[in-house]
Amino acid sequence: MNPAELPQFASLETVTTPVKQTAEQNPRAPLEKAINSIFLDQTEENKIIKTRKHLGEIGKAFSDEQIECVITNFQFLIDTWMDEFEKDIFNGITLREVINKG
Fold first, then answer.
1. 96, exposed or middle or buried, with CB in 10 Å at 0-12, 13-18, 19+?
2. Consecutive 10-residue runs of the chain (102 residues): their mean pLDDT?
3. CA 10 to CA 41: how far, in whole Å?
4. What is the pTM of this model?
5. Are 61 and 54 in contact (CB under 8 A)?
């Protein structure tokens, strides 16, 4: 095949990346948010599968909703414990508050 017959592709300099739309630019954003809250996305499904695997045999006895509750409860405990630890380290304020002050 002759090089002149090869298809021409845009160079990397001319290719632009898509711009992320804001809520004002995307009128479907509220609908998409509602749908995403109803249906599990792939990440949440993976969390359920991973958690069930970590729980072993007893994990098979839990429903998806029960597994989600376990995940939520553990996340709450982790966040609470981390906040308390950070308050001990940073004189009564969390790391997020330290960063926002700066």
1. exposed
2. 48 44 68 70 79 92 92 94 94 91 74
3. 34
4. 0.50
5. no
Please tell me the distance from the alpha carbon of residue 4 to that of residue 61, in angstroms, as a whole number. Answer: 64
DSSP H helices, 1-102, are 29-38, 42-55, 64-89, 95-101
Gap between the Cα atoms of 33 and 23, Å rounded: 11
* Non-local CB neighbours of 59 within 8 Å, separated by 6+ positions: 51, 52, 53, 67
Q: Are 67 and 48 in contact (CB under 8 A)?
A: yes
- Overall residue count recorded for the chain in this entry: 102
Crossing angle of helices 64-89 and 42-55, rounded to 10°: 90
CA distance 57 to 66: 15
Phi, psi of 34 (to 5 degrees): -65, -45
| pLDDT for residue 41 | 62
pLDDT value of position 31: 75
